[in-house]
Write a structure and sequence with these properties.
mainly alpha, two-stranded antiparallel ribbon, Four Helix Bundle (Hemerythrin (Met), subunit A), 172 residues, 7% strand, 2 strands, globular
Amino acid sequence: MIGVGYVPRMALYNRWQNENLYGTADHLTDEERQRERGAFFGSIQKTLSHLMWADRLWMSRFYGAQPPPAGIPESASLYPDWERLKSQRVDFDAEIMRWAEGLSPNWLTAELTYFSQSSARDISGPVWRFVSHFFNHQTHHRGQVHCLLTQAGAKPQDTDLTMMPSQGEYPN
């Protein structure tokens, strides 16, 4: 089981890595960000769009935030405008940080039930397991984006959690 200290640390890691990858992708042309490269969602931008969609979906389950207006099939095309996607990412990462900093240990041990569109059924379990999945899902798709950026000739910075600046060195 995870504790409440894990959640803000991973929220900070999420923000740090999004800044890394979006900053790297920002140096590419729109054509390069949109180029189909054989990843599950195809392109850099489509993968980042799906990840933004998924983050919104999970946060709607965790605390009632507005869910995204589409399902998984549309998730990759939900943010076709790069500038809008970047802006939404920065704002939503700040929202994730606020949420993470306000959690109680009791909430993590509570049960959560949600309806999964992908499996067409209710899924139940301890909140901590879903929060762990939330951060793991982000890392999974950011790893794909890192590979796609490398294929495009870009060089993202370090991605190791152990290399993340401490909170005193990294602004909140």
